[in-house]
Amino acid sequence: MQGDDVLLRLMLAGATFLTTKEKTVLQNNLDGSASFALYSIEDISRVVRRVIRRATWNGAERLAQAQREARVLDALGIRWTAWDSADFPALLREMADPPYLLFYRGNVDCLKNPCVSVVGTRRATVSARKATETFARDAADDGCTVVSGLAYGIDGHAHKGCLLSARGQTAAVLPCGIDTITPSAHKKLAQRLLEKGGVLLSEYAPGTGAQAFRFVQRNRIVAALSSATVVMQAPAGSGALITAEFALEYGRDVLLHAECFSDDARLVEQEAIRQLRMQAVRGKNVAHKLAQSVQRYRDDGAPVIAGYADYQSCRADAPGCGNRDDGQSTLF
Asked: pTM for the full model?
């Protein structure tokens, strides 16, 4: 799509108070971007058949913003796909509210490979970082695309490990527009990712900054892009556990690496809990973070794997992947 269709799509993508379904209803009832620029909140409410409260909308300003975004897309060679487009990642359509638009740089077709999401803490132990690189490299050698969030710690090592493979294609989902890289220290990693046939993804238009809630939103896409999520190491309060929650919500498998339960990981867990309790003393509500733990997932039946070979066995035997044909268990 070109011209006014792009502007209309960008305007709708920026209407964050609407669901993807509502944006589609508007899309099918609008004559173009100029028409949408004349709409009021009341007009939008009438078309989507929902009274919209506490939303700010200025159609003329939104059109001007969409025009600026379109220029950045052209200047930087950023492409996009819509949820109703043929090249939109199929697994994302299974979400309750998939991204209306997905902006990308690189080879989006790498998401047609079997994908595995690899997530974990920024405060990863040395052994967990090594294990992550090994797992990601082995997954890539087997033809998988490794999906993660380009963050410090486990995410970065998942991408790096994948790139060690001759077949290494990896996908990084960003919590900001992909005209910038967050964290900035991973710009070279992002470039290597693209050079190896991987892809950078974001549901946010160029110029959108990284904010705390966008990291959580990013995590839901990381979870949705793969049929399985592997948690390498994640103390209480880690965003990786949020990703695991999303994965289960979407009907995906969640597997725990043995590094989650190493002696060093227990020390990291103890420190994380201590910091969360200090926050609670200062009046911050952290009860939900304290309630989450890798042990809880283990108690609920999530398999614990030692590496990619175990991952393959579990995936082949799912559900109840603890029992293999040879009678041996993949569970620790």
From this structure: 0.90
- Express each pLDDT in 58-83 by its tens digit: 999 999 999 999 999 999 999 999 99
Helix (H, G, I), strand (E, B) or coil at 101: strand
Give the DSSP letter of residue 286.
-
Query: Alpha-carbon distance 75 to 61, whole Å?
Result: 21
3-state SS assignment for residue 39:
coil
DSSP string computed for 48-70: HTS---S----HHHHHHHHHHHH
Q: What is the pLDDT of residues 281-312, one digit of tens each?
A: 788 777 777 778 899 999 999 999 999 999 99
Name the residue with tokens 């190491």. 233
Please tell me the distance from the alpha carbon of residue 283 to that of residue 100, in angstroms, as a whole number. 37
pLDDT of residue 216: 93
* Inter-residue contact 149 to 122 (CB < 8 Å): no
Average pLDDT over residues 201-206: 96
On the CB side of 219, CA atoms within 13 Å amount to 23
Q: Is 84 helix (H, G, I), strand (E, B) or coil?
A: coil
- CA distance linking residue 108 with residue 79, whole number of Å: 10
Cα separation of 324 and 320, whole Å?
10
**Strand-pair partners of 82:** 101
The token pair at 32 is 């173009």
Q: How far apart are CA 108 and CA 148, in angstroms?
A: 14
Is 111 in contact with 89 (CB distance < 8 Å)?
yes
CB 229 within 8 A of CB 254: yes
Return d(Cα 234, Cα 294) in angstroms, integer: 7
Instruction: State the DSSP code for 262.
Output: S
Beta-sheet strand order (sheet of 145-148): 79-82, 101-106, 199-202, 169-173, 145-148, 115-119, 228-231, 253-257, 304-305
CA dist 167 and 14 (Å) reads 36
d(CA 304, CA 243): 17
With a CB cutoff of 8 Å and minimum separation 6, the contacts of 1 are: 9
